Recover the amino acids of this structure.
């Protein structure tokens, strides 16, 4: 279903994010205010039902993916019954962005995600399926240590650019240099949060950023927020006009417009490959 908003026409998301807890010190902020309290078990289930069963019909599309955040592994285990009911309501995948230690899996949850911004915390995240390492200005050396630690232990890691200027997102040349150092040692790391012209990631993998519903204790059901409208907006700058990835790329977070990253955006040049095209290396960002 299409929704008309002040930011333009957007499709109703098929992913629901629930901020279960109040405190989430490890998070990389997207702009949501800290809620006044955490969500109760009944509220979690009611919101899942609202965005799945209640929305199933010819004019609406229910969500089939669930993201829960600000939640400990212990709380996830206490909610096993809720996850079972979520599956019955049509949820096919559950991802949890966890606060605190992640030493073991949680029954009923498909993916445990944690943020690592200092190597000292690494051993406590051994049970995470994916580790997000922030790419912050002046801290890429620490980020590199974190990435090497996770990969050496056989884990999965993603270098994540913060979406807000207040969190000091690193400059693009420094990020690409970091990726090149890792690649020279046979370590391939993907980047989230920025377009291919900045990250140097394969252009054929570029896709528009998927939207999702965002609910917490203060924004439930019909008062839930749209993540990419109410919290984060993506914008195209002048340099994007000549880029052949116009239809694939969302641009940059609006919070980057007043940072050095804005001036580093360049059209990608070269032949546009398909996702299955192995000759995509001909496409490179302009210098």
């Amino acid at each position: 279903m299409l929704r008309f908003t002040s930011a333009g026409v957007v499709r109703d998301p098929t992913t629901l994010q629930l901020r279960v807890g109040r405190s989430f010190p490890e998070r990389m902020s997207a702009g949501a205010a800290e809620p006044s309290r955490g969500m109760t078990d009944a509220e979690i289930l009611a919101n899942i039902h609202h965005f799945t069963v209640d929305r199933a019909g010819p004019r609406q599309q229910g969500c089939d993916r669930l993201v829960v955040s600000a939640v400990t592994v212990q709380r996830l285990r206490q909610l096993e019954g809720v996850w079972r009911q979520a599956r019955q309501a049509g949820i096919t995948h559950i991802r949890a962005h966890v606060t605190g230690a992640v030493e073991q899996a949680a029954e009923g949850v498909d993916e445990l995600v944690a943020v690592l911004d200092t190597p000292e915390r690494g051993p406590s995240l051994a049970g995470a399926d994916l580790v997000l390492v922030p790419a912050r200005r002046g801290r890429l050396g620490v980020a590199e240590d974190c990435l090497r630690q996770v990969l050496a232990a056989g884990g999965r890691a993603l270098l994540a650019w913060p979406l807000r200027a207040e969190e000091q997102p690193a400059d693009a040349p420094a990020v690409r240099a970091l990726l090149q150092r890792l690649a020279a040692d046979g370590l391939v790391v993907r980047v989230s949060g920025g377009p291919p012209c900045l990250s140097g990631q394969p252009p054929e993998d570029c896709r528009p950023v998927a939207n999702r519903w965002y609910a917490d204790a203060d924004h439930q059901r019909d008062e839930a927020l749209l993540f990419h409208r109410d919290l984060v907006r993506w914008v195209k700058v002048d340099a994007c006009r000549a880029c052949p990835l116009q239809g694939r790329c969302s641009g940059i977070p609006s919070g980057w417009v007043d940072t050095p990253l804005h001036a580093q955006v360049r059209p990608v040049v070269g032949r546009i490959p398909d996702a299955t095209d192995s000759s995509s290396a001909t496409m490179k960002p302009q210098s």
